[in-house]
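Budget justification aside, the reviewers requested a transparent look at the raw inputs and outputs of the sequence design task funded under Objective 1. We therefore reproduce one unedited record. The lines immediately below are the structure tokens for a 335-residue chain.
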């Protein structure tokens, strides 16, 4: 993988570009993809964003979301665009299987592939150019760097600012995680000086849900949360019946995993949701417990040191048992 800087001189020649990201794109995935799209469009490229799957309704406020192709919903169109693409940007993931059914198509695509990502253990041989930096707060921060370093600061408009700021806020836990280095605040100051209305983005991210989601949250915290004080661990397991009863849609469960972290002394929080095709895990930790290794070792997953995800193909009950065994095996690390 050649350094990302090597494509800067090539940006001046218009190309057919596809930008893609991980399945069920969150604010960083969608924000970085659309932020980059708004830049490349201004530079004269023809740009299409393809999402491997659908996304949460609360992402729809981002400028440009309406034109994003959902691969599962509009496969022929997405494949036609991919077949014609000269450049493929892969944002906020680093290995093709994170794009579900789109993965095989991406691997086969006969075009220049460019990675911009901040997760661990990138599949570098799959990309021609790129940057992989786990010290970055978010992929949105990396797209901001891309814009500045390629000499396009003057292209940062309201659309780009809102998209990038949203991803930074989301991935830093509102500037709280240790990934929030000084440069993140400098980035925000710069966007602000260029006219960003940060309050609007916060409203769109955090005050943009329906009543059912709040009632669901209450139900889950009351009835589905188990605290294991001897392991400083909290587990939330959500059966499918809850998702149906509360009309839960993609994205409604986002942020749920953070609530138990407000309990004193909790080091690890695990959330498992009974999705149709798999049991999907989210892990969050504080301090020196490595969620990435934990997710990789036990749940076919990965992510960051303090935030990772994974999956189980077993039933919810079996997945919970599997977790309890893993938790006990990690007893020392959890003290
Ligand atoms: P979340 O819990 O918010 O879904 O994911 C937390 C972090 O772990 C994100 O950075 C996400 O990209 C990563 N992650 C989530 N699920 C998986 C997975 O199945 N495999 C890998 N490698 N990373 C994941
Ligand atoms: Mn991210």
């Amino acid at each position: 993988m050649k350094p990302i800087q090597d494509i800067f001189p090539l940006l001046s020649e218009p190309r057919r570009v596809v930008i893609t990201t991980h399945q069920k794109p969150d604010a960083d995935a969608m924000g970085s993809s659309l932020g980059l799209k708004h830049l490349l469009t201004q530079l004269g490229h023809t740009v299409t964003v393809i999402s491997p799957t659908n996304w949460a309704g609360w992402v729809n406020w981002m400028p440009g979301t309406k034109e994003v192709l959902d691969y599962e919903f509009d496969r022929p169109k997405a494949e036609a665009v991919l077949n014609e693409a000269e450049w493929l940007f892969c944002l906020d993931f680093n290995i093709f299987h994170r794009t579900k059914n789109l993965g095989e198509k991406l691997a086969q695509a006969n075009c220049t592939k460019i990675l911009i990502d901040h997760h661990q253990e990138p599949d570098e041989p799959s990309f021609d150019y790129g940057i992989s930096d786990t010290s970055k707060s978010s992929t949105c921060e990396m797209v901001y760097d891309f814009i500045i370093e390629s000499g396009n600061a003057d292209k940062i408009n309201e659309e780009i600012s809102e998209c990038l700021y949203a991803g930074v806020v989301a991935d830093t836990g509102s500037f709280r995680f240790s990934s929030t280095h000084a440069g993140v605040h400098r980035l925000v100051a710069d966007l602000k000086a260029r006219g960003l209305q940060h309050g609007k983005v916060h409203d769109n991210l955090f005050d943009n849900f329906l009543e059912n989601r709040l009632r669901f949250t209450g139900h889950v915290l009351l009835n589905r949360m188990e605290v294991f004080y001897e392991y400083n661990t909290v587990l939330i397991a959500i059966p499918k019946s809850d998702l149906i009863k509360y009309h839960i849609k993609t994205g409604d469960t986002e942020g749920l995993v953070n609530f138990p972290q407000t309990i004193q002394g909790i080091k690890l929080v695990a959330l498992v949701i009974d999705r149709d095709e798999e049991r999907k895990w989210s892990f969050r930790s504080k301090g020196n417990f490595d969620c990435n290794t934990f997710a990789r070792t036990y749940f076919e997953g990965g992510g960051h040191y303090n935030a990772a995800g994974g999956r189980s193909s077993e039933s919810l009950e079996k997945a919970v048992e599997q977790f309890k065994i893993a938790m006990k095996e990690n007893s020392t690390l959890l003290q």
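The first strand starts at residue 2 and ends at 3. The mean pLDDT is 97. Computational costs for records of this kind are itemized in the attached budget.
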